[in-house]
Specification:
This protein is an all-beta fold. The chain has one domain (2-37). The protein is built from no helices and 3 strands. The chain has strands at 2-4, 9-18, 28-37. It is rod-shaped.
Length: 45
């Protein structure tokens, strides 16, 4: 998922699963969130 916040930050989310071979249950499940700030250049630059 990618969401642009009104503040200018961009939030990305990744669902991650790490499995163990032969195991019925995953070793890890996570939702990995990242925030990135995109610098805006002045329009007259």
């Amino acid at each position: 998922d990618v969401k642009v916040r009104p503040s200018g930050w961009v939030q990305t989310a990744h669902d991650v699963t790490i499995e163990i071979e032969g195991s019925k249950k995953p070793a890890l499940t996570a939702r990995w969130l990242t925030l990135t700030l995109i610098e805006r250049q002045p329009e007259n630059a």
